[in-house]
């Protein structure tokens, strides 16, 4: 296991391996001599295992100089010397964007039928939810209203009974308490010790008055409304049956409505070949712009490096020798630019 540095992380991304906090290289050889290679648990070729391994471990020995013969090593040395590491990283990033756009097109074409079936399913579900139009918190509100309306007769009877006992009957609590408070006020003129009892009863009288006002206001709004009860029951049944059809809790219908709308939009985007191809073309143009800038900078640096190294060779008993950095064009470009660098 190794901890990846930036160069390794870029390599993993370019070759579609998971870029984790650690890198695990594994080679398994069975009893018949067949071998398999793995990078972070994903199957890999031996060439990929070797290439990544050389990035992770420096091997010092009589053949270490042979690493300089590898094109990727020459490219990295050259870009580092020329101060073009950031520019090269931009090109690699733009290449990955184009690669991902290309893979999205390939996936859309390969799974066109599956995407169409999934889209039809989502479109049907969304049509059902659009028709229902569930609102935030509606299940709780409708359930509470249904409970109130279905028990309205009991509520009316209970509230009226409470009002009668508190303020409307001949022996109403508020009337009796008012008489007691009035009597104690007059008696308190004779003995101040009654003040404590009076101080406790006066707030109670006020609270009873407020309770009577609140209950009276509630009773005025409370009414038997069979039509409204029928409407609420229909809405409650619609919410419940739709939730059962989609196998969802009824109180999540609004969130699921929004989620399915987003899923359908994402599926439409994934299946829209025109939009995907436009994104691919845009990504390729961005890649070419970055790659051409890098090529221009490399050409200037290659000429300067070749001149400097050739001059140095003349002072090292290598008279007549020359050093050249060749920029060999690639037919289709790649993650490292439009050319291969060779010394």
Automatic annotation (TrEMBL):
GO BP, sorted A to Z: DNA recombination; DNA repair
Alphabetical keyword list: ATP-binding, DNA damage, DNA repair, Nucleotide-binding
Tagged with keyword ATP-binding: yes
GO molecular function terms attached to this record: ATP binding
Protein family membership: Belongs to the RecN family.
Protein name (database record): DNA repair protein RecN
Top-level taxonomy: Eukaryota, Metazoa, Chordata, Craniata, Vertebrata
